[in-house]
């Protein structure tokens, strides 16, 4: 029986599955077909949540030569992809896995079916050359990373842990490299916190402002205090925390009516100077002070009336300090590419924020320049290079 040692062939099979979140689209079936010949036991639990679609996931485990003694390595990722958008804008159909020149085109080529294809190929080459690794290997693959992330990784981790699974380290195969393979490992991520502000005024005729209270005046005062002064100047491993207002709206199409309410939403990407709780307290304090100073109309002493609501499940900030994992992966990258990767905490959130509660976790995958774009594509040479990096890491990890 032939083993899935060719990452390009593996990726072709995965791209041709239209697994737009939350659809399985055949991608997990294709992945299971690759893993079974390697000796993996495969489970595909489906998780549900109120107000969210059911999501099928995959957990595969290879026991290894010394399952009770060897370190347990997890590879995590997702087979779901974002919608392709206007398919007429693609050079090749987004689910065709067409090859032109030195590139393979397709939705998910780099984010992140390509990373999965390479890791499977690396494992297959190890099994072909050496037999099973000297310890357990598992793949934890979700179908809703690009969606609400409710019925995927977080529940799959709980499910596996309840069955006695314990992991020593994890690699998430997200596309971490900005320009070339070997540029960057993600060793942590900033936290993410989202809040909604509603300022209450009094509706009225714009020609008679003394009979109304314009909430936009109060909103301007509140938003200004969120921006200044800056939240912090950054920390040793993280850039400064950043707050951005993403929407301001009064829902008022009339030009001669003062609105009754103004709404705004903001998001903060925060560093390890804060926890979600301390940052929420800081924002509350700033808004309370500004509300007491601000006035909806000159000559009036009333404070700005507002409500602040926090969105559920803020993403925590985290930093991985596990030297064996970080140094081992760095060494494998340098051995294959000649580059010493930067250790970064930049970018958005990923499912690593859930995995860090179970074991040390880092992220390393392909070059991310075309992720989520029309004509998402990957260099065929990069598929081979990433497979060689993963192979080197697996060999060293179990040595």
Account of the protein in words:
The protein has 399 residues and is of the alpha+beta class. A hairpin with a 2-residue loop joins β2 and β3 (52-56). The chain has nine helices and 21 strands.
Q: For the record, give the distance between the C-alpha atoms at the N and C termini, rounded to a whole number.
A: 27 Å
What sort of overall outline do the alpha carbons produce when their principal axes are compared? elongated
The order of strands across the largest sheet is 1-4-8-5-9-20
How helix-rich are the residues, as a percent range? 25-40%
Quick description:
With 399 residues, this protein is an alpha+beta fold.
List the keywords.
single chain, 399 residues, alpha+beta, six-stranded mixed beta sheet, four-stranded antiparallel beta sheet, 9 helices, 21 strands
Note the topology.
Elements: H1 7-15, H2 27-35, E1 41-43, E2 46-49, E3 52-56, E4 58-62, E5 73-78, E6 99-100, E7 103-105, H3 113-130, E8 137-142, H4 153-162, E9 169-172, E10 184-186, E11 188-189, E12 191-200, E13 204-205, H5 215-227, E14 242-249, E15 257-258, E16 261-270, H6 276-293, E17 305-310, E18 318-319, H7 323-337, E19 342-344, H8 352-355, E20 361-363, E21 377-379, H9 380-397
Parallel strand pairs: 5-8, 5-9, 9-20, 10-19
Antiparallel strand pairs: 1-4, 2-3, 4-8, 6-7, 7-21, 11-18, 12-16, 12-17, 13-15, 14-16
